[in-house]
Amino acid sequence: MTEKKQIHLAAHFPGVNSTTVWTDPRSRSQIDFSSFEQLARTAERGKFDFFFLAEGLRLREHKGLIHDLDVVGRPESITVLNALAAVTERLGLAATVNATFNEPYELARRLATLDHLSGGRAAWNVVTSSDAFTGENFRRGGYLDRADRYTRAAEFVDTARELWDSWTPDGAPRPVSHDGRHFSVRGEFTVPRSPQGHPVVIQAGDSDEGREFAAASADVIFTRHGTLEAGRVFYADVKARLAAYGREPSDLKIMPGVTFVLGDTAADAQERAAEIRRQQVSPQNAILALEQIWGRDLSAYDPDGPLPDIDPDPESELVQGRVKIADPFAIAAKWRALAEAKGLSIRQTVIETTTRQSFVGTPQAVADELDEFVQTGAADGFILVPHLTPGGLDEFVDQVVPLLQERGAFRTEYTGTTLRSHLGLAEPVWKG
Amino acid sequence: MSATRPLHLSAEIGGPAHYDAAHYVSLARLAERGTLDFVTLSDTFARPGPDALAVLSRVAPATERIGLVPTVTTTHTEPFHVSAAVATLDWVSRGRAGWAVDVSTTEAEALLFGRRPAAPGDELWHEAREVADVAAKLWDSWEDDAEIRDTSTGRFIDRDKLHYVDFEGRTFSVRGPSIVPRPPQGHPVTVIDATSGAARAAAVRHADVALVRADDPTTARAVREEIRDRARAHGRDPDRLRVLAVLPVELHTTADAVGLAGLIGEWYEEGAADGLHLLPTDVERDLGFVVDGTVPLLQHRGLLRRFYPGATLREHLGLARPVNQYALAGEGS
Ligand SMILES: Cc1cc2nc3c(=O)[nH]c(=O)nc-3n(C[C@H](O)[C@H](O)[C@H](O)COP(=O)(O)O)c2cc1C
Question: Quick one: which of A189, A255, A312, B255 could link to A163 by a disulfide (CB 3.0–4.6 Å)?
Fold first, then answer.
């Protein structure tokens, strides 16, 4: 009998968006180290593969003002992960770091250092978002279109790997000489090859360019395709791209970001899920969500009243620091149809359309579903996004993990020490 | 100077490159056992070694009181990232962070980045001054009480307490605000080795701790006076600036440790500096003699405290938590 396919699990620190519920009395600091420590320790108690930190390099704005309705503010990822390396032993430590607003030499060095100091647990989520808005905080400034962003990211990763490979096995630096379209790097790296050889590379981007980059270069994809159907389509698409790069399907792990709500009964879980959705969409957040689609000031509208009759403004610059809405007219039409059919208010419509809880049910039902995703080719694992800081993962670790372990789909102990070993990834070839 | 003036003692823990955390943790704990104010860990892109700020972040949860001061270079790095990383070191150490500002002058370092040619020290220290300035602005770009969690209005923050910094330097500009809330110390401690003229010009403007080099206490005292005068000329209160004399040490025996205590006592009595920053030759050996030999003698003579009365590096140094420049501006208008 072949061994059952294993699920990989990661814990996403609650982010600066409306998924994170800060109004709950159990919600604690988003910035104190104790919150990071507690969540990381919980993930390690649950034998998770890794702990994940997102990044945003400019505070989001709405109508020209700093967005104030969601959690705002977070520490710098790599620095926090180095500190977490001191209070965890096996847990992988993944930092989201932008490839547009960094330089390969410095970032490769910071990641190699994290890998050394953590004994081989470092990962880098390569993001490419770039806009002139974010660029205002950086030397390079400006904006890169999607094609340039990804050629830069790909060359960035290649250059980092040249640096990570540059020391000889007996510990002597060899000079690197990289001359490319985006970067010129000449000289010696200050850090010997780290325990993982190369820190794990994660990719989070959904465009064709993004998928191709992942197929060529990444070890893990962090995706938004978290339903069974969309997951299977995405999974098949990405895995099929690997052969062209001489890679096996198992060389790239697909991990959708997902939320979960547990309850003693199915009804109980549904009730808790509805309450969380109400917490996530305050009356103020409902109007804001509407303004993000419509691109107009809708502050005069009653969140408990009907949707506006006016059409979206597709040229709007109202929202900054978020991914642009592709077709606001289509979304507006869909929202109107839904509101009309079900007799929903603005807030109810926003709750229905923007909040999506991936897995809602008893621990048994959720464990069944997660396993089904993995056994039927919709995912290799999950990046769990709790809605509460820092206790939002406790129930999952206490109630769902043991069920996954019972059915032989998830480790009961760490078998290796590095993140690569947790993910079942091969050691990278040391290119001399 | 009054006899009750505290003596500040700190030490560098760098040396031949190590890449394992345990090495640095044990050195920092040793220094902490000696109740030193802080340890520095030097860093450069020009020689082998790990990223110093990362190392001291790794050390932070494994220590409780010791101040942690990595060298952070400003020439090939992003001011926005530098400010966020130092602020984060302050968060993970619960108020024990500093940064020793430095520049990268060599052609070799410039080639590692391929972004700008090598430049003279004067020019780069001018830029470093701008980086120190914008870092402080970014730390202040969140007022301490910006997070309000007001359920009645649905607001997590009071955005009137977040500020754009709109900094325009010669070589970079930063819009702000920071992505990191104001760190526990308000401003992590800025340390500058004020030996060169250009670095000293930065120190008199931005340093909380200026390091100076002198062969004897008389020269050191003159440099200290110069730095204090110049700081005053920049509108600063010189008592909010600590001048530490850098003292290279090489200790082979207990007798050497006793001799060092005598020397430190002399420098202290001459009013040469606010304290000494020790530069070990062999860090494991020398720091051991300092902590087990020199420190107890200084404590016995009443020159050095026996425990940490405070929790933050600013408290160890007797430096007040800075007032937020934007909060002040707000009150005036
Ligand atoms: C699940 C997911 C998580 C992401 N997290 C971040 C993040 O933390 N920080 C960031 O700057 N961009 C983040 N991104 C943005 C992507 O990295 C990418 O830049 C963006 O999706 C645009 O690329 P695309 O056109 O290929 O989708 C994320 C994207 C996805 C799908």
Answer: A189
